[in-house]
Task: structure prediction
Amino acid sequence: MKELEREYRVRHANALTPIAEKLTHHLQSLLEGEIRIDRISARAKSVDRFMAKAEKVKDDRPKYDEPLHQIQDQIGARIITFYTDDVPRISDAVLKYLRAIETQDIVPDNEWEFGYFGHHHILMLPADVVDPTIDPDLVPKFFELQIKTLFQHAWSEANHDLGYKPGSTPLDRDQLRQLAYTSAQAWGADRVFNDLFQAREHSTGKAQTA
Result:
C-alpha cells in the first residue's frame, strides 16, 4: 500500500490536479447559458480518500485488484442546481457533449430509509482537458460527474465529513439515525421548493397565455 500511495501522490500532483482545473472550465463553457446552476467544479480525489477506497474489502478480499485503473472517480466533477426538476435537464445537456459509460440515480434502498441522493455519471475524460505535456500513463480514462441540488450537496458534504474520515470512530446507531433525520429534512426541503417552483412556473405560464 505504501507503493500505491506513492504512485497516487505523483498522479495527483502531476496529472489529476491540473486536469481537474481544466475540466472545471470545460464544463462551465459547455453549460454556458443553462439556467439555475449554482456552481460547477471539479477536483482530484484526495490521497486519503483514494487510499481509503483502495483498501476496501469485499467478501474478505480486496475490492480492487488494480486501484489506479479501477477507481473511476479519481477526478470528480459536480454540478449543483436549484431544484430537482433541473437535474434531468442539465444531465441531458451534458450528454450532448460527453460520452457516458455508466449512469445511476443513487437513492436509499427503500422508501422507509433516508440517506444519500444524487444523479451520477461515469464519463469519458475529454482530450481537451489533458495538457500534452502530462505523462499519458498518469491520465485516467474516466471521471465521475455528480449532478445534485443544493440540499443534496450540502447534506452529502456534511455526511461525508462526519462519517467517512479515515481513522475516525464509526458512528453509533443513534448518530446514524440523526444523519438519516437530516437527510429526510433535506429531501423534504427539496420537495417543497420544487413544488413551489412548479406552481410558480405554471401560474406564470397561465398569466402569459391569458
About this structure: Strands lie at 37-44, 57-58, 61-62, 75-81, 100-106, 118-124, 142-149. The first strand starts at residue 37 and ends at 44. The first helix runs from residue 2 to 30.
